[in-house]
Amino acid sequence: MLEARNLSVSIAGTPILRNAALTIERGTTVGLIGRNGAGKTTFMRTVMGLQKLSSGQLAIQGKYLTEAPAHTRAAMGVGYMPEDRRLIPEFNVEENILLPLYALGQKPDPARLRWVYDLMPEIARFADRKALSLSGGQQKLVALGRALIVGRNLLLLDEPFEGVAPALAQRLIEVIAALRGEGLSVLLSESDHVHSSKLLDRLYVIERGEIERAQLAAA
């Protein structure tokens, strides 16, 4: 589903990713674990086409996207949940969820929206509320819903549990676990894998922009 080969990225002349490599197979959930500043968000943004590569190759579903603009990812069924949520405060919940479809010039798919609401009934209950009025944890759920509205094949979830209350972190774990039965491929980043340990099929560790495969602890 995703293959990243020898990705190198520099920002303002400073190397951030160094020959980073990672593979995600269809229907698997993969963790990318690293301390703050290790390069997790840069890797996610690079996969999404939001950060320019210095060198390396990137392919999604066998299609090389090294030079492709960011919007091509959404059209390929890739959803992205950034660490800082990036909701539009003046839009209500449903408008934020549907935003990627509007950006692609596509009409909303009522069946897909119902599926998102069935998966997370709590956001359906405040669909008409402005994003500005929501708690940080509620905004995380809405950002996940926005990623899911287009993410039919691959989801990139950057620090989904960061800064949320334990109860909401547990709710996010439940939702992500439910996606395993949907055939989605998921890349999930965390500073450690305390929350995600039972969700992962494969684990990678990133340190100073370099990625290594790690062994998952036995259940």
UniProtKB/TrEMBL annotation:
<dbReference type="InterPro" id="IPR052156">
    <property type="entry name" value="BCAA_Transport_ATP-bd_LivF"/>
</dbReference>
<dbReference type="InterPro" id="IPR003439">
    <property type="entry name" value="ABC_transporter-like_ATP-bd"/>
</dbReference>
<comment type="similarity">
    <text>Belongs to the ABC transporter superfamily.</text>
</comment>
<keyword id="KW-0067">ATP-binding</keyword>
<keyword id="KW-0813">Transport</keyword>
<keyword id="KW-0029">Amino-acid transport</keyword>
<feature type="domain" description="ABC transporter">
    <location>
        <begin position="2"/>
        <end position="218"/>
    </location>
</feature>
<dbReference type="InterPro" id="IPR003593">
    <property type="entry name" value="AAA+_ATPase"/>
</dbReference>
<dbReference type="InterPro" id="IPR017871">
    <property type="entry name" value="ABC_transporter-like_CS"/>
</dbReference>
<dbReference type="GO" id="GO:0005524">
    <property type="term" value="F:ATP binding"/>
</dbReference>
<dbReference type="Pfam" id="PF00005">
    <property type="entry name" value="ABC_tran"/>
</dbReference>
<protein>
    <submittedName>
        <fullName>ATP-binding cassette domain-containing protein</fullName>
    </submittedName>
</protein>
<dbReference type="InterPro" id="IPR027417">
    <property type="entry name" value="P-loop_NTPase"/>
</dbReference>
<keyword id="KW-0547">Nucleotide-binding</keyword>
